[in-house]
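tmp note - DUF3422 domain-containing protein
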Amino acid sequence: LALLHDGQSGEAEYRHLHRLCERYAVLPPLPGASCHIQHFGSFELRWERHSEFSTYTFIHVDTAAAPFSRTALSLLPAEWLEALPGKVISGVHVELHDLPGAAPTADDVRPHFENQRLISSWVLDRHARLWTAFRLHQDGLGRILVQSRDLNVCQLGRLVRRLLEIETYRMMVLLTFPVARALAPELGGMDRRMAAINAEINAIHGLDDERRLLDDLSTLAARIEHLRSETNARFAAARAYHELVLDRLDGLREQGEFGLQTFEEFLLRRLTPAFRTGEAVSDQLDSLATRIDRASKLLRTRVDLTLEAQNQDLLQSMNRRGHLQLQLQQAVEGLSVVAITYYLVGLVKHVAGSLAEVGWISHPEWVAGLSVPLCLFLVWRGVRRLRKGLEKHG
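out:
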């Protein structure tokens, strides 16, 4: 059995295993352990916790003549099995039998698989024969029959482990398909929206249009990044599991039997379309992200160029305004010099009149008139120095 963690912590699995061990008075797994092997008398349990799922392998030695007439799961407490933490994604019975002297035909084996269509091949250089239907049977689990010609216990153990891994990993690959199928319509809509935006970029009439399209692209980019963050781990895991399935199939060294599909032929025919669908959606996500980024950069460049042109116009306008202000300032400075000179000459005239009254000078008007050029020069020089001082410190 392989069960997705489905939000369940390792602690929940540990407690569940602990209850089974207490029931049979055997040692439980250590706290925090990721694997456990224990004999329970009539069966053996091998538990392994992986990053996304956990596997429970129950081993039972039985001398029953008919395959699958009595399984290892029938020896476990039903209530304990039903309460296993997680969501079952794969379950299969694997039975090991010696290969009869006369090689069995599909008609001989089909009754053990409820008369369903069979998949079969020779493996490990024809040292063993595999049979399965790759379908669920009445108990909700699959079945694989291994008929060994001369394999030893270690070789059989490795073969069974490889078969269980193929079954588990192929189901993990298939988890990508519903994710990809759910995303496909939305990505199709985004793709059409991107095509429309690219067409609008060529017909932009102003900065408002550029900003509107840039907002649309930002919204699309945020949605794409959200989808990528939610699905990247699933798609990456599917690639890894797919590689593992191919590796385990290659390790079987299959040889086909006329009229029957091999494991590899059956699995690749059904697994490859689902895997490629996930890959196509993943590639479409990456492609959309790249196209959105490229279009955003193009629009930002257009916006920057438009703003730069507007800034140039604004600077030229400010330069013209500054020139006018300078001319006005110079005109005001001239008027200021005349006004200050007028009041200064008036003061000189007032002082000269006072001096004439005491007899120091006889013609105060002459003094006032002669002081005009001097006052004008002094005022002009003072205003000029003041302006230069302000410009220097400003």
